[in-house]
Amino acid sequence: MKAIIIGCGRVGSAIAGELDRNGWDVTAIDENEDAIDRLGSHWAGGFVRGHGMDLAVLGEAGIQHADAVVVATNGDNTNIVVAQVAKERFKVKCVVVRLLDPARADFYRERGLHVVCPTQHAIAVINDAIRASQEAA
Predict the structure, then answer these.
(1) Band of residue 136 on the pLDDT scale cut at 50, 70, 90
(2) Is residue 92 a contact partner of residue 68, using CB atoms and an 8 Å limit?
(3) At 19, which CATH number?
(4) 14 is in which domain, residue-wise?
(5) Structure pTM?
(6) 12: Cβ–Cβ under 8 A, 6 or more apart, which residues?
(7) Which pLDDT does position 111 carry in this prediction?
């Protein structure tokens, strides 16, 4: 199975490492060449330095053969565009995108993208904790 991880920060590098350890053929993409250091000394996958919106970079990473794409850069706009390109242009079956803005997350989730929104998750966990403390009182 082939996976492309776009954005090799804390989230992207952790997902890339997990997939790599589970036998996936993984290529990470990041604009910062030093991001490869986050993948660790046992990294067996590939790394392409570049921007995830650059079709040549996506091609070099092998997106045309990807079974899954994870888009986790630090910019919602970039993530949305790259996720849509992966899904619509390259017909990748599993595209997962991280979005920080809850309104955008809902909008794109309703349009068929697999969206992870840490902001929504944090809000839900905090609200659950407050409700639980009120019930315990």
Answers:
(1) confident
(2) yes
(3) 3.40.50.720
(4) 2-136
(5) 0.90
(6) 5, 6, 28, 30, 70, 72, 73
(7) 85
